[in-house]
Design goal:
The complex is a heterotrimer of chains A (138), B (361) and C (142). Chain A has 3 helices and 7 strands; from the N terminus they run H-E-E-H-E-E-E-E-H-E. By secondary structure, chain A is of the alpha/beta class. In chain B, 48% of the residues lie in helices and 14% in strands. Classes of the chains: A alpha/beta (138), B alpha+beta (361), C alpha/beta (142). The interface between B and C is large, with 36 and 40 residues.
């Protein structure tokens, strides 16, 4: 699927819940969706047998963002969704993609995002008694 | 009788610290708990405090064995943000060092696998032959590992006419010895008894858990960033993607050994190609990195290395996210070990070629 | 006199325990490469053993991460006297390029007493052999 076709299909699926999109060089595409609607997109990706590479967490200042990196050949898609720092709740996708569980654990301990309905929200890399969020900047 | 056996964090089988709790019923494995984080060094946070150029040296030291993987993925992401195309010669130069690294990493793995099975002689033979590759890397780049070969915009040093003949001679020796090792692994009855039929990862599980690299390709799940997302000069050279179906330890060993031969082919073609390109044209100047974000992917010896870089227009990155292949592959380990005996656990663990320093960063 | 004989024997057969406490694994691979035929530490009597109770020399690499430091302390306490600790690589000596990280308790000598330092990133196998032999001579030789 080409980048423009992918964006059109995404617009059909989400309507106004697709907040922004950007098509970069070499088939890199970044899209931002409203919090709560990312699971629909991930389910659609699952039907297309997309490959989940990793989930990144970003500190935007007022908000905390999760970027889900999928490969849908030949595109490299970054699916973003964010929540406010006061209530950083984003729902899990580990029931759709089991390997997302570890990436979400890392986002929880490093950035302080609360992943709702996560099956195993323990610390992954940091010691169990570490209370700060190292990757927060603002 | 139920038992819990703990491997690590300090153990002889794997050089790096991680903890595995293996639950057994008798000799059969019924569950595996993996605890990581013993090697966590906070690299992503450090990367935000150093400039883009300094970060190349930082990400190089995420891992000592796949030391070229991280800088290439990182510089590709940054060059994408800056919107530059590096010279064709730089692509070939990066590719030659990358494939040399793949050869030495796969030989390293084969030696460690032989030692874990108990055949120390083969470990000694393989590591002796690995030294020929490291000699060439040292002659070309100046160091056996941590080559400092990349800069934003290309390479820092060139491969000249006088480097090529000793490189090709060394590759001939490596190719001949690798064929001997492939024969040893595939035909020796002791090695076959240990590797065939153990640590099976079915194709559907490999796909669902999004494994990468030789671990995925040995189970029939064909992912190879060199073919799927052509970068460097991989679309200009001819090589085969090795995909097998059995998904056991022997398949993973076979994929790696056959890939060494493919890497030799790639380096020979690249060495020929750079003869026609002007010497010295190895980098373009990149004055500043505008705000933006991009993704750099690279096929390391262990699988897909993924770098997400976000820039805010200053000299320092806003965010650097690194995902090494073992971070994905280790989640397939419980499936692989289920049902096998306790004695097969070390070799099955080693067969994904784990690099915990990469996973923990 | 007896002491001299014992020290001579200790010097000629050092059993090494290698502990990686948060390294990039390069120093660890160079320690293993020192075992390989080209550099061959076994001609000095050195072997790598997994059991701290059998150890003469603790070989330490890495930046002493948060989770691994207690493990290193326990291994150090389990190793019987007389023992030596050799810190290999820039990370174990000064934390190297990771000097400002939040995820470390300090270089190796902040955690265990170190007897010999082998600098480099990574130190070549020849440097590791030279360092181990120098440490042996300084501790139990002459």
């Amino acid at each position: 699927m080409e980048a423009e076709e992918f964006i059109e299909k995404l617009k059909e699926l989400l309507g106004r819940n697709l907040l922004e999109y950007h098509i970069g060089r070499r088939n890199r595409v970044f899209v931002k969706v409203k919090n709560g609607y990312h699971r629909d997109v991930v389910s659609w990706f699952q039907e297309m047998q997309a490959h989940l590479s990793v989930i990144s967490s970003v500190d935007l200042g007022d908000e905390l963002e999760l970027v889900y990196h999928f490969e849908i050949r030949p595109l490299e898609v970054g699916l973003k969704t964010s929540a406010s720092k006061a209530k950083p709740h984003i729902e899990t996708i580990s029931d759709i993609y089991p390997s997302a569980a570890w990436y979400e654990r890392e986002a929880m301990e490093m950035m302080g995002i609360v992943v709702v309905n996560h099956p195993d929200p323990r610390h992954l890399f940091l010691p169990d008694d570490y209370t700060e969020f190292p990757l927060r900047r603002y | 009788m139920d038992m819990v056996v703990q491997f690590g964090p300090q153990h002889l089988a794997l050089a790096e610290p991680e903890r595995f709790k293996v639950h057994t019923e008798g000799e059969k494995v019924v569950d595996v708990e993996v605890a990581v984080g013993y090697n966590h060094r906070g690299i992503e946070k450090l990367a935000e405090r150093k400039t883009f150029e300094q970060d190349i040296l930082l990400v190089e030291r995420i891992c000592g064995i796949c030391s070229m993987s991280h800088p290439v993925a990182f510089t590709q992401a940054v060059e994408d943000i800056a919107g530059v195309d590096i010279p064709e010669r730089a692509n070939y130069l990066r590719m030659i060092i990358a494939e040399l690294e793949r050869i030495h990493s796969h030989l390293l793995w084969a030696g460690i696998a032989a030692e874990i099975i108990g055949i120390e002689t083969l470990f000694m033979y393989i590591w002796k032959d690995r030294e020929y590759v490291l000699d060439q890397l040292e002659i070309i780049t100046g160091n056996r590992n941590h080559y400092a070969w990349n800069t934003i915009g290309g390479c820092r040093k060139d491969i000249t006419e006088k480097h090529i003949p000793p490189l090709l001679t060394a590759l001939e020796v490596v190719e001949r010895r690798t064929e001997y090792y492939i024969d040893a692994f595939l035909r020796n009855r002791t090695i076959r008894a240990r590797l065939v039929g153990t640590g099976i990862l079915p194709r559907e599980d490999a796909r669902k858990l999004c494994t990468v690299g030789p671990t995925a390709r040995a189970s029939g799940y064909a992912v190879d960033v060199r073919k799927d997302d052509p970068h460097l000069a991989y679309d200009k050279v001819d090589f085969a993607e090795i995909v097998l179906g059995e998904g056991d330890n022997m398949a993973r060993a076979k994929v790696r050994l056959l890939e060494i031969l493919e890497s030799v082919k790639i380096i020979r073609q690249a060495a020929k190609a750079i003869k026609g390109l002007p010497e010295g044209d190895i980098a373009v100047p990149v004055a500043e990195i505008p705000p933006g974000e991009s993704v750099g992917r690279y096929e390391a010896p262990r699988g897909e290395v993924f770098h997400y870089v976000k820039s805010n227009g200053t000299f320092y990155p806003e965010r650097v996210k690194v995902r090494a292949p073992t971070y994905s592959n280790i989640q397939a380990v419980p499936t692989m070990l289920m049902g096998d005996t306790l004695a097969d656990v070390p070799i099955s663990l080693a067969s994904i070629d784990p690099c915990f320093c990469c996973t923990d960063r | 006199m007896f002491e001299k004989v014992v020290n001579y024997c200790r010097k000629k057969s050092p059993w090494l325990l290698h502990v990686s406490c948060g390294s990039c694994n390069n120093c660890d691979i160079e320690v293993l490469a020192a075992l390989a035929p080209r550099f061959d530490v076994e001609r000095f009597g050195g072997v790598l053993k997994p059991n701290p109770r059998h150890t003469d020399i603790l070989v330490v690499t890495g930046i002493m991460t948060l989770k691994m430091t207690n493990v290193l302390k326990r291994l150090y306490e389990q190793t019987p006297d007389p023992k030596a600790v050799v810190a290999i690589g820039s990370c174990a000596i000064t934390k190297g390029i990771f000097a400002e990280t939040y995820a470390s308790y300090g270089p190796a000598d902040a955690v265990v007493p170190v007897d010999a330092y082998i600098p480099g990133c990574p130190p070549r196998p020849q440097a590791i052999l030279h360092g181990v032999v120098t440490a042996l001579n300084a501790l139990w030789g002459g």
